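Reviewer 2 asked us to include a model.

Predict the structure of this chain.
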Amino acid sequence: MIKWLLMLIAILVVFGCARHDENAEAENGAVNSEQKGKGMQAIKEEEKEVDQYINNPQAPDTRSLKEIGDTYEDEDGKVTLVASADDSKRLEIGPIELTYKNLKVMEYRPALHLIDYFHQFTHHEDRFNYLKLQVKIQNKSEQTINVAPVSVLETSEGELKGFEDDFYLQELHGKLSPGQVKTGELAYILEKSDPEQLNSISITTSDVYEDNKQQAIEKGKKVELAF
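Predicted model (structure tokens):
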């Protein structure tokens, strides 16, 4: 009788261990799936953040323009895609990470209410070409810093543009608090560059400064994007 009782206890112990292992494996699988799901969600959120669109009161939305010759028109005027590039670059300057992408050249015919605004940028304010690109800036440090993602932009035809030539005015230059991320677009009117002859643009960033701009933390860098 005792022999059979011991055998029954042993069977129950073995069965209990097997059930415990199955439950632990299931729990681990659930945790791994949850972690994987969170990882994928983080990636999607990052992509969404980089691709986030900010409306520009100075120009129409160009996201729908994919092929050369595509046009879009709204209350701000009419834009036509004349050149684009698939190239994108990521640049690290000390605590700053910069991403440049979605490079396009547009022909723009602004609406009448915007012509006076563009007169300060060009003498051909009723019809001109402009270059635009998307930028993401991330401050990975624990201090407030000051940086300009584009200090000087130069086309392959030698046309130079400074940060003051940007007419989108999305405040991508300047201070970033600890951990802050800025995304947006910059746009520069082209007066000496033929879009059909453009091979590339080079971008030189500003130095990275402390909050008060008295001391540079890192020297600026140069990056090139090709058409």
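The helical segments are 2-50, 112-118. The chain has two helices and 14 strands. We have added this to the supplementary material.
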